[in-house]
Amino acid sequence: GQNIDQPTEMTATEGAIVQINCTYQTSGFNGLFWYQQHAGEAPTFLSYNVLDGLEEKGRFSSFLSRSKGYSYLLLKELQMKDSASYLCAVRDSNYQLIWGAGTKLIIKP
Amino acid sequence: DVKVTQSSRYLVKRTGEKVFLECVQDMDHENMFWYRQDPGLGLRLIYFSYDVKMKEKGDIPEGYSVSREKKERFSLILESASTNQTSMYLCASSPLADSSYEQYFGPGTRLTVT
Q1: What are phi and psi of A81, to 5 degrees?
Q2: B18-47 pLDDT, tens per residue?
Q3: A4 at B interface, C-beta within 8 A
Q4: Strand-pair partners of A47
Q5: Contact A101/B45, CB-based, under 8 Å?
Q6: Are A101 and B42 a contacting pair at CB < 8 A?
Q7: What HEC string does B21-82 produce?
Q8: A45 contacts on B by Cβ (under 8 Å)
């Protein structure tokens, strides 16, 4: 079966760095997405990786290793507004998105 | 900016009622999707459509149907609502399936079936 695993919840301090991991087992691979979802709101796109390596976008970076079925989202200089759930999703061989359950990130002052 | 709108943010219906959830996107996207989101579970795909009048079943289509009569509008229908359909329903759209384009989501409809 297809499976995406990410931690349920993480806590970090304002101004610090946090890494949210995602491991996947899917039927084929056509890219990995990270989305941010604030409570009660729609998911919004953060990043896309299809080749191995690191993609950097301001305070956010995303890494992919296809051979290990592994990705992480790195958030630097954490701000209170980064408190949200972070969703990992993989596009499979049928070009459908398979979603993880999300990681709830709590930022403390 | 891409905009995906959903007809209601909150909805309360009784068991057995027929329920219509409407979704409209304004960016001429070919693909549209309906998901449900429940605590502790990832988004689960109910149905999707890649063209007008075309529909494909997702992972959990039972108890649902869809309609896409116009490119910009994708409707989700609960023929006879049941309490286990209480959930957050998210609509999304994207330009093409075989590309790096992300899906754009509407604000969601929180449906409660009593």
Answers
A1: -70, -10
A2: 999 999 999 899 999 999 999 888 899 999
A3: yes
A4: A34
A5: no
A6: yes
A7: EEEEECCCCCEEEEEEECCCCCCEEEEEECCCCCCEECCCCCCEEEEEEECCEEEEEECCCC
A8: 102-104
